[in-house]
Structure formats: structure tokens, C-alpha cells
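Reviewer has doubts. Consider these C-alpha cells.
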Amino acid sequence: MTEAGTAASSAATTLPEPVRQRVLNLAAQALGQLPATDIPPPLRRFASFAPGKRAKLSASVLGPILQTDDHFRRLIAFEVRREHPELGDAVAEGIAVPAAEPIEVAALAYLLRPDEWEQRIAEAAQVPVEQPRADDDAVARLTDQLDQARTETRQVRERLREQVTELKAENVTLRRKLNEARQRISGLQSDLELRTTEANTADQRVDAARAEVERELRKLRARITELEAIEHAARRTAGQERELASTRTRLLLDTLVEAAGGLRRELALPPGGDLRPADTVAGVEPSASPVGRSAPDDDPALFDELLALPQVHLIIDGYNVTKTAWPNSPLHSQRQRLVTALGALVAQRRIEVTVVFDGAELSGPVQLNPPRGVRVRFSPAGVIADEVIRQLVRAEPPGRPVVVVSTDREVAESIITMGARALSATSLIARIARP
């Protein structure tokens, strides 16, 4: 090795203090730009410090590592050359830059290691060290502050880039999760709609089944009620039929007895005797006219004769009489006047009297107090009074005298065919008006 090379190698080993300080400042600034994995462990705790503080505190560790770790030195050199592209390229290519500071050139040469880098350090060692002036100190401080601001700006930019990258990745993840959530919600909504439809259909089926069961129950209850009513009516009808048969038999017997007695008195038949010769002579006897047949239907005398018949039953078409006698009076007044007058007639004659009113004329419950011995009936819903009168006539046993008071020709004709006698309303009105 030549003397110049030996001197250069020695200078490289022992850097001049200005060059050493500049090397440490440049390396400290570049240290903050390296990834943590590329920083040696002893220096990692200084990476987060400010550049000025980093240069002061890490000097004792950074200098030896730069001398011994070529890989780390090359990483620092790459960052320094990127920060000082013009001067760094000139130093790396061995181009002389007369305007450049020898100390700056020596520091870059030490880090970049171009050919004859030891010579650049030796030349910087020959430069006399000047005492720093106040302006130079201010410039140095401003330069440090500028370097620190640049470093902080780069750090902030890197952090912002990392944050943007993280936000973009998070946005992609959120969008994917949002799409998945939307798909799940759509599937859940479809499933909910399907289940709602199934539930509604099931509810409809349950309601239909419940309605069918209730309908069947109502039918069964109505049938049970109907059967109970039929059973009750059958029992009542059987009892009534037995009682009615006994009554009709007794009434018919009384009628026959009284009719026979009346006929005996009318014909003046002797209690008994032998057959007379004249009784054996053949001939045509005069026929006896029925009682009252020769008189008109509205004759009061005929009415009295019919009432004198034994066990006679007087049936009256109520409104047919009242509307003839008192057409301008209210219906309730007509009814009460008729039954009151009939009560006096019953008291005189001791006869059976039934008055039938048409139920269709009613607007509500009837308040009526019939006298003793006067039976009052209203036709049920859907049945006229004429039909009730016919039913009363049919209920009587054959042979009992029945008199129906009505000016309705249809009623008169129908009851005559049943064996009853029909009188006009005027005959009854004349009789009850007579004192």
C-alpha cells in the first residue's frame, strides 16, 4: 500500500470530527425512513425520536454500527442519496463539485463508498476548521429545523399513506361484509315472508276448522234442543190429548143428556106407556125445522135460541166484530170493550166463549184483562185469526153445538162444512147492546 493509501485508510478509520458529525446527522435523518425490520436492534429505540435528538443520543451506537455493518451502511446511503440527489449522484460517480463543501462531500463519500472515497475524507481533513459564527449557528439551526420538518413531513406522509391503505382495505372489507349482510337480510326477509305466509295459511286453516267445529256444535245443540222440545211437546201433547179426549167425551155426554132432556120436554113425551093403535098407522109426519133455521142470521132472537142450546160454544172473530161496532176507537179500546160486554153475557147465560184476535195487528205485548169465563186468543206469528177459528171448531167433538160469529163469508162457509153455525157480527152487537 502506498503512503497516500495508508494515510487515506487511516483517515477513514479516524474521521475528522466535522465529517464524523455530518455523517452521524445524515445517518440519523435516514434512520427514521427505514422500516423497523431493517434497523439493527440497538438503534430501533432511537427511530421514533426527532432527527436532532436522534443524532445526539444515538451517536455512540450509530457510529460503530456504520463502521462494522456494511449492509446497514448501504441502506443509510441509499436514503441519503435520495434526500440529496444531485450532490449524492456526483459523489457516487466521482465527479468533482467545486462549489460543494468538502465536509459534505466527505460525509457522502464515506456513506456511498465510491472510488477514492478515502481521498475525499483526507481532503476534508486538510480543510481548516473555522470557528462557527453566529450566523452560521443560526443557519445550522434552521437547517436542522428544516431537516426535522422534512423528516416529520415524510413520516406524516408515510403514516397517512399507511392509514389510507388501511382504510381502503377496511373499506373493501366493510363493503364485502355489507354485501354479505344485505344478502343475509334479503334471505331472512324472504324466509320471513314465506313463514308469515305459512303462518297466515295455518291460521286460516285453524279458523276454518274452528268455524266448522262451532258450526257442527251449533247444529248438534240445535238438534238436541229440537229433540228435547219434541220430547217435551210429545209428553205435553200426550197428556193434553188424554185430557182433551176425556173432556170431549164428558162434554159430548153432557150435550147428549141435555139434548135428550130438552127434546123430551119440547115433544112432551110421556115417561112411558103402551103402544097406541094410532101409532101403527103409516103416514108422513111433518119434519121439525131446526132451531132458528127459519130466522135470518142477524136476528137477535135466533142468537138467543142458539145460546140456549146445551153446552154451546160461542167462538167470536174479535176484530171482525170490534171494527164493525167501534171502528173509530183504538184497537186496545175495542178489545177491552168487547171482552167486557162478553163477560156480562157469560154471567147471564153460563156459556163457553172464546174470542180470537189477529196477532198481526199487534205492535207489542198486549195489556188485556178479560173477565172470568171469557177465553182470549191471539193468532201466532204467520197464522191469521181465521185459521185459529177453524182449529177451534175442528177441536170440538161431533154433535156439540158450536156458533161462530163472523161476517167473513170464507170463514162462514168453511165452518159450516165442519158442522158449526155461523152468525153475523151485527147479531152479536145487537145482543150485547141490549140492556
